[in-house]
Amino acid sequence: MMILAQSSPLRPISANGPVLELKNLGVAYGRGAASVQVVHDVSLAVERGEALGIVGESGCGKSQTMLAALGLLPRGGRITSGQVLLEGQDLVGRSPRQMRPVRGREIALISQDALTSLNPAMTIGKQMAEPMIHYGGMSRSAARQRCTELLDLVGIPGAAARLASYPHELSGGMRQRALIAMAISANPKVLIADEPTTALDVTTQSQILRLIDSLRKELGMALILITHDLGVVAGVADRVAVLYAGRVVETAETETLFAAPRHPYTKALLDSIARIEDDVAERLNPIPGLPPDPRNPVSGCAFHPRCEYSREICRNALPILEDGTGAQHPVRCHVDPFVSSSLRAVGGAR
Ligand SMILES: Nc1ncnc2c1ncn2[C@@H]1O[C@H](COP(=O)(O)OP(=O)(O)OP(=O)(O)O)[C@@H](O)[C@H]1O
Predict the structure, then answer these.
(1) 219 and 295 Cβ atoms separated by less than 8 Å
(2) What is the pTM of this model?
(3) 140-153 and 172-184 helices, crossing angle to 10°
(4) 4, 118, 236, 327: which has the fewest C-beta neighbours closer than 10 Å?
(5) Which atom of ligand 1 is nearest to the CA of 75?
(6) Centroid of ligand 1 to alpha carbon of 333 (angstroms)
């Protein structure tokens, strides 16, 4: 597992190279004076078979980053900088027609709400089989067989009979399993799961996470798991990138991030992890305040208004993402004891 910290010279060189790599990606809405930057200079990468967690509160830019990578930004949104490299090939600038074969077949997306992702007027079997028949050149009966195998693989009981069900006839957990079956049907290289369990009860959440994790290992896909809850990535991700106000503020191996978080925002997120009691998640110590609205960007470090360690420099200068430890654990924070170059850059003292 590897995440690139900007263009850090410390990044590990992999023999295979990342399957998907974002390099200095920027996303904005609007033009000219009305332009609002929602993602700034985001760099990260994931290798085949590995799992990367992208974590941050609502509005921190997780979804915009991934929609940009998939060429799915809504109207008004545009990539302002950077590259999206799929096995080294840049996807930025490709037309919708050129992106169509990439989505689904190379990079598949599972969203949080299976009900809106599935066609309510079509049986599960029909919507699963259509792409196999139209794009995969399969016969109707071969596609039916494959759909049954896939529903079986994702743990839907009575898979063959379920092909005739409409989405509303399945429970939330079963719908999410069907969506996962569709996502993996083309054997994608990268699976992006955007809050895949948010709409589900706690028990079903952990079952779905375990399913995604086991499929990732079995099929050798790279997994990008997007969530606002660090608790969700704990058992799944090899490495985590924490996003705040559209910027990566810390990345580390998951174990390291939990044992020794460096950014005050990461620490606050860890303090706010939900405790589960009687199947109900109770959020402990929510972080006071809200992330900034990108239409009114905050000066210096975007987290400073909510940060208990904030100093003058934090209000004035944007910290850079750097790895003062040499342990592949970069952080964007002026008050981190290992990070000093940003302080030196502005000549300030702590
Ligand atoms: N169509 C849009 N036009 C303008 N700004 C947008 C648009 N969509 C999203 N944004 C802004 O982009 C920022 C990042 O949003 P994004 O959806 O990526 O956050 P997120 O971290 O994925 O949050 P969530 O978990 O709620 O999806 C937010 O401030 C949001 O208001």
Answers:
(1) no
(2) 0.88
(3) 120
(4) 327
(5) 1
(6) 23
pLDDT tens-place values along the chain, 350 residues long? 333 333 333 334 344 689 999 999 999 999 888 899 999 999 999 999 999 999 999 999 999 999 999 999 999 999 999 999 999 999 999 998 999 889 888 999 998 777 778 999 999 999 999 988 988 889 999 999 999 999 999 999 999 999 999 999 999 889 999 999 999 998 899 999 998 888 778 888 888 899 999 999 999 999 999 998 888 898 899 999 999 999 999 999 999 999 999 999 999 999 887 665 555 555 567 888 999 999 999 999 999 999 999 999 999 999 999 887 777 899 999 998 766 544 444 433 33
Q: What is the dihedral of CA 124, 130, 136, 138, to 10 degrees?
A: 90
Interval between CA 294 and ligand 1 midpoint (Å) = 9
Spacing, Cα 195 to ligand 1 middle (Å): 14
Atom 4 in ligand 1: which residue has the minimum CA distance? 29
Rounded to whole angstroms, how far apart are CA atoms 261 and 268? Answer: 10
Going by DSSP bridges, is the β-strand pair 239-244/222-227 parallel, antiparallel, or unpaired? unpaired
User: Is the distance from CB of 305 to CB of 247 less than 8 angstroms?
Assistant: no
Smallest CA separation from ligand 1 atom 8, residue: 64
Measured by CA distance, the residue closest to atom 5 of ligand 1 is 29
Please list the helix, strand and coil fractions of the chain in percent, rounded to the nearest 5, in that order. 35, 20, 45
Residue 228 CA, closest ligand 1 atom number:
25
Q: What is the ipTM of this complex?
A: 0.96
Q: What is the pairing mode between strands 36-46 and 20-29? A: antiparallel
CA distance 107 to 40: 22
What distance in Å separates the CA atoms of residue 199 and residue 300, rounded to the nearest whole number? 35
> Residues with beta carbon inside 6 Å of ligand 1?
29, 38, 56, 58-64, 74, 76-77, 228, 294
Distance CA 152, CA 297 (A): 48
Cβ atoms 301, 314 nearer than 8 A: yes
Residue 64 Cα to ligand 1 middle (Å): 6
Ligand 1 centroid to Cα of residue 149, in Å, is 36
